[in-house]
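User: Okay, second chain of the day. Same drill as before: sequence in, C-alpha cells out.
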Amino acid sequence: MTAKEGLPKYERICKENDIQALFNQGEGFSVYPFRVVFRFLPCADKPVTVRLLVSVSKKRFHHAFKRNRVKRLMRESWRKNKASLYEICRRDNISVDVALVYTATVIHSYDEMFKKTGKAVHEIIKRHGKIAALRSR
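Assistant: Same drill. C-alpha cells below.
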C-alpha cells in the first residue's frame, strides 16, 4: 500500500507541546535551503503518521505573500516525496515528526525544492537505519 499524496490535517504538527518536543528532543541536519529537524516516535497503539511542520522566517521574507509562496512550495515538494518515508515507518511501526525550516534568503524554484526535499527524506531514512542498527546491538 502506498501513501496517499495529500497532506491532511493529521499530518501537520500544530500543538505547541509537539513543536517544543520536536525542537528539544529531535535531531537535525541541513540540506540547503532547509534546516531539517526530526524525531522518531514509537507507535504501539496509534496509527503510523509522518507529520510535518513548515517554517519560513519573517526576518528573511518581510512580505507575507513571499512567505506563503515558499510555504506552498515546501508543502507541495514534501507531499510528493514523503512516500518512501511512510514505507519505512509502516515497516518498523514508528511515527516521525519533521520540521522543515527555510533558511535561504531567495525563493528557489519548485524543481530545486523538490530535489532538496527528496535529499532530506533520504537522509532521515538513512539516519533511522543508523539508529535501528545501534538499538539492535
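The longest strand covers residues 34-42.

User: Thanks, on to the next one.
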